[in-house]
Amino acid sequence: MSGAQGDYVFSEDFSVDKNVKKDFDDLGYVLIRNLLDSDEIKHVAKALANPEFEKNTYGVADGQGKAAHLVLWNQPGNDVTGMVARCEKVAGTSEKLLGGEVYHYSSKLMKKPARIGGQHIWHQDYGYWYNNGLLFPDALTVFIAIDDCKKENGCLQILPCSHKCGRIEHKLIGGQTGADLERVDQIAKVCPLQFVEMNAGDALFFHCNLLHCSSANTSEKRRWALLTAFNMASNNPVIKHDHPQYTPLHKVKNSAILECRNFDDLSGKDFFNFEKAQIHVVEGKRITEQGH
User: Fold this and answer.
1) Which of 60, 103, 99 is nearest to 216 (CA)?
2) Res. 282: pLDDT tops 50
3) What class has domain 18-282?
4) Which among 163, 222, 231, 278 could disulfide-bond with 210, CB atoms 3.0 to 4.6 Å apart, if both were Cys?
5) Do residues 126 and 137 touch, judged by C-beta distance below 8 A?
6) pLDDT digit string (tens) for 34-72?
7) What Pfam family is a match, any one (predicted)?
C-alpha cells in the first residue's frame, strides 16, 4: 500500500488537509506511517510490560481451535499508553477526520502470540457498537502497530470503501461477533480485499463501518497492536453499557508520550471484565467487544 491512495507519512508538519479527509471519507481509512517513531515505540513497549496488562488479558475463541488475546480498558489514564490516546497526532487527527469533538471510547492491546495467535473474523466495529446505544456510525479506531504487522503474522485485511455499505448484520460465530459472510463475499466483489502491512509505529485510522479481519498468526513472530477507539461527543450513547458515555477528553501535546515517565500507575483505566461480558452474551444481553 506504500505510496497508494490513503497512504501518508507522518512528519511534524503533517495535518489533515482536504486530501487526507477526502481519502478517509472515500476509502474509509487513512494509513499514516511512522506515526510513532522508534523511540516512542520503545517507550510504549516498556509501558505495556506492566504486569497489569498481562493480568487483564483474555483469550477469545476464534472458532478454529485458537484464541485471540486482548486486554481492554475504558479510560485512557495517565500512563504512557494514556498519553498516546490523548495526544494530538492520535486524538486530534481523529477529530479532524470525523469532523468534531471526540472522546475516548476504549483502548486495547491486541496480542497475537507467535504460532498460536487466533484469527479475527470479518466484522465492522459499528456492528456491535450499534448495540451499545450509538445511534450514528460517527466513530473510528486507530490501530497502531507495536510490532511489524505482515501477512505471515496476521496483519489486518480490509475491504476499502465498504464503510459506504452501512451496517451489516452481525451474529455470534465461535466466540466472536462477525458480519454476515454471504454479504461480505458480495461486497468483496466490488471492494477488493487489501492486506494492510505495517511496520512498528505505523497507524491505520479507520471508520467504524469499514469491514476488516485478520488471519491467525502461525509464524515465529508475535503481532502486538495498540488500538484506541474514539466516538464523537455528539454521538453520546443513549443507553448505559460496558463502555463510557461522553467523557471530556483532555488532549496533550505529542511530546507528552516521551515526557511521561509513568510506567506503573494504571489507576483509573477501568479494565474490561471479559468474564462478565461473556455472561451477557450467554443471556443474550450484550454483544462483546471485538478484536482486530
Assistant:
1) 60
2) no
3) mainly beta
4) 163
5) yes
6) 999 999 999 999 999 999 999 999 887 777 788 778 999
7) PhyH
The model's pTM? 0.93
The closest alpha carbon to 137, from 83, 206, 39, belongs to: 206
For 133, 192, 197, the CA distances from 245, given in Å and listed in that order, are 10, 35, 33
Element (H, E) at 84: helix 80-86
Q: Which amino acid is at 291?
A: G
What does the pLDDT average to over 189-209? 98
Taking the C-alpha atoms of residue 74 and residue 91, their distance in angstroms, rounded to an integer, is 15
What is the number of residues in the chain? 292
CA dihedral 212, 215, 219, 225 (to 10 degrees): 30
Where is average pLDDT lowest: 141-145, 161-165, 253-257, 286-290? 286-290
Q: Where are the domains of the chain?
A: 18-282
Task: Report CA-CA distances (Å) from 254 to 21, 35, 36.
Answer: 21, 10, 10
Residue type, 52: E
Band of pLDDT at residue 279, cut at 50, 70 and 90: very low
Cross-strand pairs, 111: 69, 224
C-alpha cell at 197: 502491512
When pLDDT is averaged across residues 204-223 and rounded to a whole number, the result is: 95
Confidence of residue 285 (pLDDT cuts 50, 70, 90): very low
Query: Could you tell me if residue 28 is left (phi over 0), alpha (psi between -120 and 50 degrees) or otherwise beta?
Result: left
Q: Which of 141, 144, 173, 209 is nearest to 60 (CA)?
A: 173
CB 82 within 8 A of CB 47: no
The 3 state secondary structure assigned to 104-151 is EEEEEEEEECCCCECCEEEECCHHHHHHHCCCCCCEEEEEEECCCECH
End-to-end CA separation in angstroms for the chain: 19
pLDDT greater than 70 at residue 18: yes
